[in-house]
Amino acid sequence: MSATTLAQQTLVRATSALKTGQVSTMPEIVQLVHTLSRKSDDISVQELAELVKKDAGVLAKVIMVANGFGYNPNGIRVESAMQAIQVIGFERVRTLAMSLLLVEQTNRGRSPDEQREAAAHALCSGFIAQSVAEAQGTVPREHAYVCAALRHFGRIVMSSFMTEEYRRARGLTDVIPEDTAFREIFGLTPLELGHDLLRAEQLPEEILSALRDCNPESIAASSITPEQRMLVLADFSTQLCELIFADGLDVPTFKERSSALAARFAHLMPDIEAQIPTFITYVEVQFSRLKHGLGIRSLPLKCVERLKDRVAKRNPRDARSVQTAPPFAVGKTNAPFPAPIAIPPFASLAPASTVPAALPPPPKPTVSSERLHAGLAHLIALAAQPGTSPDVIYRSVIDIVAEAFAAPEVFLLLQPVGLGTFHLTHGLGRNWRTFQSFATVTPGERTTFGLCLSRRENILIHDARDASIGPYVPGWLRDAPHLQAYVLLPIVHADKPTGVILAGWATKRKIVIAPDQVPLLRDLLAIAGKKHASPDTVGARPPASRETLN
Length: 550
Hints:
Layout: H1 3-19, H2 26-36, H3 45-53, H4 56-66, H5 81-88, H6 90-105, H7 113-136, H8 141-150, H9 153-161, H10 163-172, H11 178-186, H12 190-200, H13 205-208, H14 226-245, H15 251-265, H16 272-293, H17 301-312, H18 369-384, H19 390-405, E1 409-414, E2 422-428, H20 432-435, E3 440-441, H21 448-455, E4 459-461, H22 475-478, E5 485-493, E6 496-505, H23 518-532
């Protein structure tokens, strides 16, 4: 079954469950978001009051809050939703109502643990976003809460009524990136499902635009749009939430990873790293208010205790010193790797400019999506088998790339763990054994390989003998026969390049990788990167060669 068909089936099941009320309180959340997404002067107090009254438990707690001294210092008696809105304010009531509806997801006796945790993560992300918005002063705090919390909407739906499939996908994350695992089981990621469901409900674009993948390195602070600001803030809040609740992170490891996360967003949100302890404390206070102030006892104990540990900067009970790379982030792509040296502008390496004008276009596409999908499925199954060696994974990746690109030459250069230089260790075709003893790449070198590794991007060389490209081809590759065109694919793990694959052809050609093929290639190479970083590889040079084919 194709990924598109599988995704459509998942979307149909999820839509049906929402319409028939199988996912408790979720339709109310969607209705509330409709209210939240409209301008305040377009919404009547009566509308919000009617929505709050639909859930008796939510209504009771809103009234309880409105009668509390913190919100109502004058002691005005509040007995209805409309009075609560008038006393404590429109925005506070609507955000509180959404929080309480999410809490209801944790308060169902038969709810799967995964559903309760997903709802708690949505709450946490929303509260973090509120605190970030307050500190940065760039977006409305209540709007930030909604956007960050809704990034978990698809995960709540999946864990609510597709629980077994959800568990299977989570189980696969031990060997493959999380996005890849969910696409394998559901055809799409939780974030993509949430976006599609809420788009079908005709939510406005200012909310939907915050429910997409985010690459902060690609956004310039000088030209950032309001929609991008919200996306960046919501994505940061979600990722920080996942780190807070992540299993097994001791204090130093949590500090290291949260600092690395902040570094990716620092150019868009100044001083964000220094503010992280404040954000965590704010969330813990909000959870405490829900638990003690409103008498809510259903928040997952694990989440509550983990928050306390992070605030106190003490190791959680399951903490361990984590030397391996962090797990793959939800819905993330590999971030561009900062160049260790100043690389000149490679304008000539852009696909449109590296193809001589007289070059006739070859058949499209260059890459076979069918073979890429089949190869990825095979590699996922192979990586999940106990005892699969790195060498087996490397050979499989080479074969898959060769078949998908119809490339007669494939080289794999890996960086031995702990060393800086990349060495040619595996290959396929006529040339690779000739180069094996001396073909190396040094991080930061001013070549096409150095550019691929520093930017962690695919590099397409349509004609390696073009005068504008020649100076940037490594010396050992410059006069290679049977390699006039090639593509370089970076292997990345934990935001660091660990290898590079070359797929090449004997004649010049226009190389085209379709946009929908890029994530497939990234997922394929991520499996090799994860295997390269596994404990059985650490300290060992990657296995030497494979037999020449051709």
